[in-house]
Structures are given as structure tokens and as C-alpha cells.
Amino acid sequence: MAGAEAPAEAGARFVQMAFAAEAAQVRLVRAAVRERLGAWGLEGFVDMALLVADELVANAIQHGCGSSDDTVTVSAWCTVDELLIEVGDPSPVRPRRRCAGERDESGRGLELVAAVVDRWGSEAAPGRRGKRVWIAFRTTPKEAEA
Asked: How far is CA 18 from the centre of its chain?
């Protein structure tokens, strides 16, 4: 995988959920992400993580699903130096950043995501139909790596 590899073993620092592709389900994602980050001691990342998770889940529901019968998956995990969040949907069409016009009512979400995360990407979902879009926040200062 080019950017975000889920841990081989799901442990205390990994959470995954699946839900129907309905906007009303987004509140469950927010609650789960908030709770998990608190349990992991990453309260300082909650606001940005929720902003990004909301955007990726909204995109998955709006652009990646054909109906509420489809399923969206959300995974979050923490490595030694990164917090990663991944959203999967059944569409093979990968997201692309675009330049929204001044009067456009949409089209700015991925620009916002790219502005607040350290890295992001998308790829075909291995072993199943669809794709996954992931983001990563660095949790340790770059100076700490030296």
C-alpha cells in the first residue's frame, strides 16, 4: 500500500466500523472517533480528525455509494508516530482534488483535507470491490525523530 497500512493485528490502538450509507450515521462515526482518540490520549487531534472524517464519510456517501443499502467502512489506528483514518466505499472511482469556482457550492472538501493533514491518498480496496481513502496526522514533532 502506498501510504497507510492498517496494523496486522487489531489491538487496542485500532478501531473499525461499518455502517449504512446514510447521512444520519455520520454522528456514530464522530462519536466513535472522538471516544477512540480520547482513549488513545490524542485529544489534541480530535477537532481536525472529526473535520476530516466528516468530509471523507460525506464524500463516500455522496459520491461512492449508489444507495443506503451500500456500506461505508471507517478505520482508525495509531502507530508510533501517526494517527491514520481510512474510509472505504464500494465505488472504484478515486477522489480528485478540484478547483472550485468562487460561486461553486461544493468542491472544496479535498482541498480542506489536504490543508490540515500531513498526507493523504486513495487506492483500490484490496480483495473487494471499491476503494479506500486515507489520511495521516503526524503525532510526534519532526524534531523528535532526529
From this structure: 13
Q: What is the pLDDT of residues 6-32, one digit of tens each?
A: 555 444 589 999 999 999 988 999 999
pTM given for the model: 0.85
DSSP string, 10-25: --TTEEEEEEES-GGG
Confirm if 97 and 113 have CB atoms less than 8 A apart. Answer: no
Please give the span between the terminal C-alpha atoms of the chain, in angstroms, as a whole number: 26
Domains assigned to the chain: 17-96+109-145 (3.30.565.10)
User: Starting from the edge strand earliest in sequence, which strands make up the sheet with 71-78, in order?
Assistant: 14-20, 71-78, 82-89, 131-138, 119-124
- Model pLDDT, residue 143: 62
